[in-house]
């Protein structure tokens, strides 16, 4: 499975979450208290709002639009159990963070062999 570089471990010295737009999808890299990282979808399943624009306390994110709550670590939506945020693959090599551009486990369903020219945006919510 292909990964793309999105950040460096050193980018997370003053923040624990950063969101990105990759292939038109919003995802976030999250640093846990233990120092490990994971990547997750970060768009609200209701109307696609970036959850990093709302309130995040610990693992709980509240969508600013209509207050759906998510455990971003597990992906579970407390309001609608079927509205799960999916994980992305993540690996760290030499202090660089690489993420699968599509969520797991259905990343195989889409062809991601040719990623040249795909747009990657970065947004730091300052957390
Ligand atoms: S857009 Fe998130 S709860 Fe409606």
Q: How many strands, which pairing sense, and closed or not: the largest β-sheet?
A: 5 strands, antiparallel
Number of helices: 0
Radius of gyration: 14 Å
Write the CATH architecture name.
3-layer Sandwich
> What structural class do helix, strand and pairing data support?
mainly beta
Question: What is the top-level CATH class?
Answer: Mainly Beta
Sheet with the most strands: spatial strand order: 8-4-3-2-11
Residue runs with pLDDT of under 50 for 5 or more positions: 107-118
The N- to C-terminal Cα distance equals 30 Å
Proportion of helical residues = under 10%
CATH homology group: Rieske [2Fe-2S] iron-sulphur domain
Give the strand tally: 11
Q: How many discrete domains?
A: 1
Report the sheet-strand fraction. 35-45%
What general outline do the C-alpha atoms trace? globular
* Ligands and ions found: FE2/S2 (inorganic) cluster
Brief rundown of the structure:
The protein is 0% helix and 36% strand. The protein has 127 residues and is mostly beta strands.
Describe the structure.
This protein is mostly beta strands. The chain has one domain: Rieske [2Fe-2S] iron-sulphur domain (Rieske Iron-sulfur Protein), CATH 2.102.10.10. A hairpin with a 2-residue loop joins β2 and β3. Bound molecules: FE2/S2 (inorganic) cluster (FES). The site of FE2/S2 (inorganic) cluster (FES) has 8 residues, from loops.
């Amino acid at each position: 499975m292909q990964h793309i570089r999105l950040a460096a471990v050193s980018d997370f010295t003053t923040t624990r979450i950063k969101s990105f737009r990759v292939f038109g999808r919003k995802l976030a890299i999250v640093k846990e208290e233990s120092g490990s990282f994971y990547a997750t979808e970060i768009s609200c399943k209701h109307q696609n709002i970036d959850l990093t624009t709302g309130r995040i306390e610990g693992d709980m994110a509240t969508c600013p639009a209509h207050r759906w709550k998510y455990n971003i670590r597990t992906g579970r939506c407390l309001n609608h159990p079927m509205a799960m945020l999916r994980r992305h693959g993540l690996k760290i090599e030499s202090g660089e963070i690489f993420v699968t551009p599509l969520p797991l486990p259905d990343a195989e369903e889409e062809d991601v062999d040719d990623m040249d020219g795909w747009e990657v945006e970065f947004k730091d919510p300052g957390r």
